[in-house]
Q: What sequence folds into this?
C-alpha cells in the first residue's frame, strides 16, 4: 500500500502523457523478466499513460541466420545486411518477434496492435551512407508518420513496433533494417513523448564501466558531449548516448537508460523519486 501511495503523484503527473519503451536485451530473452515487462506496460496503460513499445530482436535474428547457414558479416562492428539477410531480418522481426510480444500482451488481458515501420509508412528511410563502409540494406530514417501509432493509441491499445522501415527515393519500396534504439528515438520525437526509456543490460551510464556503483543518475544534454570527449562514454555506450541526444533534440523531455535485468525496472524508474537508471534531460 505504501508503494502505491508513493506512486500517486507520478501517476497524476503522467496521466495522458506518451512514453516510448525500447525493449531489448535480457528482458526479451528471460521468461520471468519478459512477463514483468508486460505487466509494467499494462500497469502504465491502466493508469492512463500512452505506451508505445519498440523492439529489436538481435538474438532471434542470429539464431535464424545460423539455422539457415548464413554467416554474419560485420563492417567495423556494424552488421552488413545483404538482400538475403534483410529478408531474414524482416521475417524474424515483423513476423515472429513482433507477433509473439503482441500475443503476450493480450494473454495478460491487455490490448496490443503489432506494426512494423513499413505499415502506413510509419518509418521512411534511405540506405545509410556510412564512413565505416557499405552496410547494405541498413536504413537511415528520414521521415516518421505518427498517424498509425496515434490511431492505435486512440483505440486504447498498445502499439508494438518492429524496427524495419520502408525505403524511399532510390530505395523506394524496399525494406530497410533500422537500429531499434534509433527508431525509438525518432518515434519519441514524432509523438513529442514525455519520456523515452531504453532497456539495456547495464545499470545505465557509468563513470567507470568496471564499477556498477559509479552510475550517473542525471545529466544534461551538453554533458553527453563532454562525457564522450573525455572518454567516460565509450564503445557500446556511444550509440545509447547518441540516441539520447537525438531524442532530446527532437523535443522529448527526458530519456532514461535503465537495467532491464531488474524485475519491474520500468515501474521503478517512472513511479519512484529515486529511479534506478540514468536520466538525461535537455
A:
Amino acid at each position: 500500500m505504501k508503494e502505491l501511495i508513493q506512486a500517486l503523484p507520478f501517476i497524476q503527473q503522467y496521466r495522458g502523457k506518451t512514453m516510448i519503451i525500447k525493449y531489448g536485451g535480457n528482458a526479451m530473452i528471460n521468461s520471468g523478466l519478459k512477463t514483468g515487462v508486460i505487466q509494467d506496460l499494462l500497469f502504465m496503460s491502466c493508469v492512463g499513460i500512452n505506451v508505445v513499445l519498440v523492439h529489436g530482436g538481435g538474438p532471434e535474428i542470429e539464431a535464424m541466420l545460423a539455422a539457415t547457414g548464413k554467416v554474419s558479416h560485420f563492417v567495423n562492428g556494424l552488421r552488413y545486411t545483404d538482400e538475403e539477410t534483410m529478408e531474414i531480418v524482416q521475417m524474424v522481426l515483423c513476423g515472429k518477434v513482433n507477433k509473439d510480444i503482441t500475443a503476450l500482451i493480450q494473454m495478460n488481458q491487455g490490448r496490443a496492435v503489432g506494426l512494423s515501420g513499413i505499415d502506413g509508412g510509419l518509418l521512411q528511410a534511405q540506405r545509410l551512407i556510412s564512413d565505416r563502409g557499405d552496410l547494405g540494406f541498413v536504413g537511415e530514417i528520414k521521415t516518421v508518420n505518427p498517424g498509425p501509432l496515434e490511431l492505435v493509441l486512440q483505440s486504447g491499445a498498445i502499439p508494438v513496433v518492429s524496427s524495419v522501415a520502408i525505403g524511399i527515393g532510390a530505395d523506394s519500396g524496399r525494406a530497410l533494417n533500422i537500429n531499434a534504439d534509433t527508431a525509438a528515438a525518432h518515434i519519441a520525437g514524432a509523438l513529442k513523448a514525455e519520456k523515452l526509456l531504453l532497456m539495456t543490460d547495464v545499470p545505465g551510464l557509468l563513470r567507470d564501466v568496471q564499477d556498477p556503483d559509479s552510475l550517473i543518475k542525471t545529466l544534461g544534454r551538453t554533458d553527453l558531449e563532454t562525457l564522450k570527449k573525455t572518454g567516460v562514454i565509450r564503445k557500446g555506450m556511444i550509440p545509447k548516448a547518441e540516441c539520447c541526444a537525438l531524442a532530446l533534440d527532437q523535443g522529448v523531455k527526458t530519456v532514461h537508460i535503465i537495467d532491464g535485468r531488474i524485475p519491474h525496472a520500468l515501474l521503478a524508474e517512472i513511479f519512484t523519486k529515486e529511479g534506478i537508471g540514468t536520466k538525461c534531460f535537455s
The longest strand covers residues 158-167.
